[in-house]
Amino acid sequence: GGAFAFTLGDPIATALAEEVSALDGVAAVATAGIYPTDALFDIDVTLLAPYDDVAFATIDRPLLLDGRRPDPDAPDEVVVSELAADRLDLHTGDRFQAGTFSPADCRGILNDDFQGFNGPRVDLEIVGEVRVIEELQGGDLESGPVLIASPAVGPTLGDDACAAGFLAPFRFGQGEPPSPEAMVAAVRRAAPDAPDAQAGT
Fold first, then answer.
1. Whole-angstrom Cα distance, residue 143 to residue 23?
2. Beta bridge partners of 70
3. Element (H, E) at 121
4. Are the C-beta atoms of 197 and 188 separated by less than 8 Å?
5. Would you give per-residue pLDDT tens digits along the chain (201 residues)?
């Protein structure tokens, strides 16, 4: 399953993980930051930066189609989803360069004032191509073109880049999973001011 909160800079990753992990039936939770980029303007191209060694490694691990997975200690390595490879014509061995949101950009969006992508520019090496979980089995949380980074990317971006939201992929244990309503309520407790909160299996 997965939980998502659109927060535009409000750092709720820890709270989101705590609320989701407290739900009956949830065995493990991971977290990742969602960083929009200016790679395309007709569709969002998102950089997913895991905040631990679990997200996209043991939970929501994508299917490797080519190359390898990012080195957990490499701050410039990513894999691309099939949709990102198709839309951006990016393949193993290429580099991805794009701008990110700054904290001021996120504040501007909250005030209906889009200022562009004035955060750090990323220069990342594509080390593999993957089929993400939504492409494998479908899901309630839709995904556009994504690049999945190593856990070292988030600390490299630091406070100069603004995450538009946070993702908490989770794994169910034995027994009945929590209801969709219970999952969304957990996200809302973690991010009561989020314009959008979703959760699904």
1. 24
2. none
3. strand 121-131
4. yes
5. 899 999 998 999 999 999 999 998 899 999 999 999 999 877 889 999 999 999 999 999 999 999 999 999 999 999 999 999 999 999 999 999 999 999 999 999 989 999 999 999 999 999 999 999 765 544 444 468 999 999 999 999 999 999 999 999 999 988 788 888 999 999 999 999 998 999 987
Inter-residue contact 80 to 96 (CB < 8 Å): yes
Q: How many other CB atoms sit within 10 Å of the CB of residue 66?
A: 15
Widest Cα–Cα separation across the chain: 47
pTM over 0.85: yes
In sequence order, what are the residues at sequence separation of 6 or more whose Cβ sits closer than 8 angstroms to the Cβ of residue 48? 32, 33, 34, 35, 55, 56, 146, 147, 148, 149, 167
Point out which residues pair with 131 in neighbouring strands: 63
Cβ atoms 94, 153 nearer than 8 A: no
Instruction: Spell out the residues 6+ positions from residue 89 whose beta carbon is closer than 8 angstroms to its own.
Output: none
